[in-house]
Structures are given as C-alpha cells and as structure tokens.
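> call design_seq(struct)
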C-alpha cells in the first residue's frame, strides 16, 4: 500500500462571502488570533505525516506563496534586534526547501477542477485534500486519524460528521456499512438527499484521502451544482469502482469560509490560549452587556 505523502490545498476560490476583505486578501490568509487560517490546516496535514504541500492558487493569492517562503529581510531584522523567540517561531513553521509546490487554477471552475489542476504535482499515488477554510480541531488531528484508517482499509477515505437529520439536503451524505478500525465502510454516497431519502445523517466534511484515478474522472467531469465542476460528483463516479471508508470526526469544526464560523474560530482559539484567555473572557462579558445591535 502506498503511503499518503502529499496534500492538496485548493485555495483558488473567490471567497465572495468575505467581500470586501477578500478583494485583496485571500480568505485563507485571514487571521485566527495570530495565525492565518491556512496555517492551522497545514499544521493538521503535517501532524498526519504529510511531507509535500501542494497549493492550487489563483489570481490575488500570491501572498500565500510569500507566507510559506522565507522573508530574508524580516529574519535579518529580527536577528539584529535579538528577537530570538519570534525568529524561532518563523523557523518552526517554515516548510523545508522543495516541500511546498504551487500551481494556478487560472479560472474558478469549481473544487473538482481545482483538484484536477494538481494532477501532475500529485502523480500516481494516493493523496490528501484539505479544504483550507475548514479548521478541524481535536486532540488528534482529523487527517492523522484518517491516515490510520487508510492504513487498514486502503482505497479512499473521507471525513464525515453527523448533521441534523432534517438538514441532509444541505450536504453530501454517505450510507453507513460495517465498522472498520476507527471508522466504517461506506455503502453509497448521495448529494443533498431529502431527509426522508437520506441513508444516514453522516455528511461529508472537508478532508479526503483519494486514489489518483480521481484525476481521469475529473478530466471529463461535466459541470454540476452551481455550474461548477464538483469534487463530490467525481467521487460518486470513483465509488463505482473503488472502496470508500469514512472517519467520523467528533472534534470541533470551524467553517472559516463563513462569517459566523470565522468569528467562532477566533473566540475558541483565543480561549485555548492561556496568555490571553482571561482578558478575552472579561472583554466579551463586558461587550455582551453593553453592545446593542445596530439599527
Ligand atoms: P467554497 O465555495 O467554500 O469557496 O469552496 P469560495 O468559492 O472561495 O467561497 P464563497 O462561497 O465565494 O465565499 C470550497 C473550497 O474550494 C476552493 C475554495 O478556495 C475553498 O477552499 N475552490 C472553490 C477552488 O479552489 N476553486 C474553485 O473554483 C472553487
């Protein structure tokens, strides 16, 4: 069985829900406390043993490439000023030379198309996909758990979360088969079924381990929902010839592509931080008593 060594981060979306901020800043670079959203997701990939990061970028996303590069002037200035802790922090986060690759999607034709753009960089091996605006927080990372499941099942592994059974029509839903390792086998996948037709309430969330055959499928994939080339449609086709298993994630998921999820992530990660936690709680209590909604 081939090891999962590479991860794809599709960062070419327009981020329209965060306009006007995303006119000039990619949504993946918005900060949760003091790190860009993308850093949390890259940390999760590295914890899972991923050693090559592949970013599918687009116009206005050059700052992501800069972020993962060494900023020589900044490092020199920090060294001159004796800021060793800050230097060490940057050093710890720095991908090793040659372990981060970037390719452009050219036009935002959908998530499936963005993944297809990474085909040459991935090559003929299984790979992970992490949706870079979803921060998934747990004691052991979601992708690390998925890699453990993959080592038992091979094939394809996706993360799922239990959704409100009345809201299955908002998500891709999987059918639950027998338990295996820390997950279960998938008996089928349906895109946005009505609650009465849904095979379960396990919805597909933002992490995937897929076999490279997905690329041939995506190459000829017709446009689907939203007039975009959808990854889920490609996976439905792949599931006709290959096995899928699911890892049911039970940690906290923050959808930083939405305003509410992004703000929740900021509050949660501030509360995890012993250096600012008490002050943040005090400030929030005061604000909640005094701030009224705008007219
Ligand atoms: P979303 O639909 O959540 O992202 O896509 P978006 O289009 O950037 O956001 P809104 O809805 O306009 O606010 C899920 C993921 O797929 C990537 C996005 O960057 C996001 O990480 N994506 C989407 C691409 O890389 N290319 C695309 O053409 C579409």
């Amino acid at each position: 069985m081939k090891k999962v060594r590479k991860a794809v981060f599709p960062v070419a979306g327009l981020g329209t829900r965060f306009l006007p901020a995303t006119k000039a800043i990619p949504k993946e670079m918005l900060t949760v406390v003091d790190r860009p959203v993308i850093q949390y997701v890259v940390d999760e990939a590295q914890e899972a043993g991923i050693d090559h990061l592949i970013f599918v970028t687009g116009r206005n996303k050059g700052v992501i490439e800069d972020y993962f590069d060494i900023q020589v002037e900044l490092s020199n200035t920090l060294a001159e000023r004796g800021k060793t802790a800050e230097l060490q922090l940057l050093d710890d986060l720095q991908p090793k030379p040659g372990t981060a690759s970037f390719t452009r999607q050219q036009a935002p034709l959908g998530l499936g198309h963005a993944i297809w753009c990474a085909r040459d960089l991935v090559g003929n091996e299984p790979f992970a996909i992490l949706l870079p605006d979803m921060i998934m927080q747990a004691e052991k990372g979601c992708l690390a758990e998925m890699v453990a499941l993959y080592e038992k099942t091979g094939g394809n592994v996706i993360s799922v979360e239990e959704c409100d059974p009345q809201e299955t029509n908002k998500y891709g839903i999987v059918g639950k088969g027998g338990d295996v390792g820390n997950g279960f086998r998938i008996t089928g996948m349906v895109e946005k079924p009505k609650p009465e037709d849904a095979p379960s309430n396990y919805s597909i969330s933002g992490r995937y381990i897929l076999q490279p055959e997905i690329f041939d499928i995506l190459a000829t994939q017709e446009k689907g929902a939203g007039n975009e080339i959808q990854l889920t449609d490609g996976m439905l086709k792949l599931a006709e010839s290959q096995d899928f298993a699911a890892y049911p994630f039970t940690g906290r998921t923050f959808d930083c592509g939405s305003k509410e999820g992004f703000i929740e992530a900021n509050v949660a990660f501030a509360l995890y931080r012993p250096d600012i936690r008490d002050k943040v709680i005090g400030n929030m209590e005061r604000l909640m008593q005094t701030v009224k909604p705008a007219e």
